[in-house]
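A quick aside before the break. I want you to see a complete sequence-to-structure record at least once, exactly as it would be stored in a machine-readable document. Don't worry about memorizing anything.
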Amino acid sequence: MSIRKREGNRPDRRLVHETVPSEAEREALCRRIRYVGSALHKLRPGDYGFVPSHNPRPSKSPCDALRSIPLAEASALMERGVMLGMVSRFDAGGVPKYIWAVDEAGDVYEAKTSPERERSYHGYRLGDDERDMRELILNEWKRRVGKS
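That is the input. The structure line, written in tokens, reads:
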């Protein structure tokens, strides 16, 4: 199997082995985190309650470029990603910086937190500019879903 070069080299943006964290740790994580979204990644504010309603930045990847994604769906995608172990390593605060998920249409999303919002996540779709990461997540998602 050949190893392809990833876009960038961010050690904190790597998928952990599927058995880490344990199932019990994943369930506990789902109870501690929440998806809040970000007005910077929204073209359509939907039911997120942003004030102002939205403020997309051209330099940010919009999560809703293809379609509007309701908050409940985004939250469910993030939880499914956690339960499949589609997370980066846990930081000192006990949460992963990144969580990945794939929707019914096969689009790959990345949810991210930051130190100041340690248990609140926002997300965005991985586009063509991150083809290698998108393909890695999609293939691993299919493999893990097939095992569950």
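Two observations worth writing down. The longest strand covers residues 120-125. The CA atoms of residues 41 and 60 lie 6 Å apart. We'll return to this after the break.
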